Amino acid sequence: MPSWVVIDPWADIGFHLAPAVFLLLDLLFFSPPWSIPPLSALGVSGVLAFSYWWWVEHCFTHNGWYPYPLFELLSPVWRGVLFVGSALVMTGSTVCLKWVYGRVNGWGVEGPIVVRREGVEKER
């Protein structure tokens, strides 16, 4: 990676953490329920991961460096393993977020949801 490619840590946090937090809040409180089953989530995650891998390799052929130093250290086979792992983590995140959404919003939960606050029980 060229030496001029330096990013301030606060900008890096802003580019990665802030969108994740705001998208999580949007998902939990303002979005309709997801209807994607785990196998479909794996397919979508795989397509996204391998499309990104293709794009990274395509950019490398034009500029001669990877956007992340780790990619230069890994052989093509291990980069493939990294992207397969990324697709699996993405699928796991989708399944977990779908479960959290259900717990927060009462979607996909059998029976009445009992809300307990300060000793008072109410059914929703």
Description:
The protein has 124 residues and is mainly alpha-helical. Helix content is 67%, strand content 6%. The chain contains 4 helices and 2 strands. It has a two-stranded antiparallel ribbon. It is flat. It starts with 8 loop residues before the first helix and ends with a strand. The mean pLDDT is 86.
| Structural class designation | mainly alpha
Strand order of the largest sheet: 1-2
Low-confidence stretches: none
Helix and strand succession?
Answer: HHHHEE
Number of strands: 2
**Share in helix:** 55-70%
> What radius of gyration results from the CA coordinates?
20 Å
Question: Which percent range describes the beta-strand content?
Answer: 5-15%
Distance linking N and C termini: 55 Å
Please tally the helical runs, counting DSSP H or I stretches of 4 or more residues.
Answer: 4
Mean pLDDT: 86
Largest beta-sheet characterization:
2 strands, antiparallel
Secondary structure topology:
Layout: H1 9-30, H2 38-63, H3 69-73, H4 76-105, E1 114-117, E2 120-123
Antiparallel strand pairs: 1-2
Helix pairs in contact: 2-4
